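I am still getting used to backbone structure tokens and would like to learn alongside you. To get us started, please write out a protein record for me. Once you have written the record down, we can walk along the chain together.
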Amino acid sequence: MNYGRHRIVKELGKGAMGVVYQAHDPQIDRLVALKVLRPDRVTTEAFLQRFMKEAKAIGRLSHPNMVIVYDVGEDHGTVYIAMEFLEGKPLNEIIQMDAFQPEEITDLGVQVAEALDYAHRKGIIHRDIKPSNIIVQPDGQIKITDFGIAHIEDPEATQQTQAGEILGTPAYMSPEQVLSQPVDGRSDLFSLGVILYEVATGKRPFQGENLAAMFRNITGEDPAAPTTLNPALPQELSQTIMRCLAKSPDQRFATGKDLAEALRRCGQRAVPAPGPTPPTPAPSRGLIISLVAVLLAAIIGFAVYHVIIKPKPTPVVVTPEPPKLPRLGGLNIETTPAGAQVLVDGENKGTTPLSIQVPPGAHEIRLVLANYGDWEANVKVEEDKETHLPVELMPLEDSQ
């Protein structure tokens, strides 16, 4: 199958708005990542024209930490964007595998903040900064994907938007996003602060048993300082992260450039410069002779003990411990109306109401029901605990 001149190779993943494929572009003879919007998201001709205009504007952006957009077009009743195909891992996978050192946290933050600053100065707000949209390449350079796509995909006066869909992922949304207020670049900096908090402590700053509780925390509760959870974190870095998470945009960093400069200062203080080494006085001849005598006596004593005196060791039989089985967590999903298909990390688990056991950690949850808007969110499950997820699905306009 082709979209425009791009030949589909394989599917890479699905989201609430569409599907991402690996495709081949014969014009430049390279693999690309092709994002195709679902036809039902192409709501009006005006939206289609705005999508094309804004996608082309993003295609003119050029920054080493932003994915390159090669092409946009229309085909098969929908629209697509051909982007740079990246080698590397998304940050959400790396967070679950590795602990981050302070210098790694500051390097990550500087790269993302500078890319955001560049886009904001060009009039583009991302609005969906989250770990899965940040690809870490083998050389450590990061690339932000879907840059501005959330802005493009927001039809005016849409009735299909739900938490976790189009306007952001709940755990990384700013207070102004949760409250449906106008946003600017400082909203992206709040989302980056959530990511930096997570890589610094291993936990997200805002959690809750359901989306309503999470949104209350985002808009009304201040998280514990990162140093409370990670005492090894430099105090200045902890304070910088907390400033990103200020409820009021006016109390955050004004620009991505300001945040990047603050993070650089944190990195410089985290690695103190070595001081001059004081000269070592030369030992006297008598001291050298005494040291040689002590060393010879020690060698002779060691040999006598191990050859003559030391008893033979008794063999010890070690019984290996049985392997520990991973502990799971419960996930209880209910929808109104019931009967929605449940996909956990892309795998079909059945229909609602549904109670399943899953490994602890973050999971991408997607709910699909005919004539209702898809619902998608990133949910964290803890071991030996039940996570309850009540969701009210919103009917599509043409089904009402």
User: Anything to note?
Assistant: DSSP finds eleven helices and 16 strands in the chain.
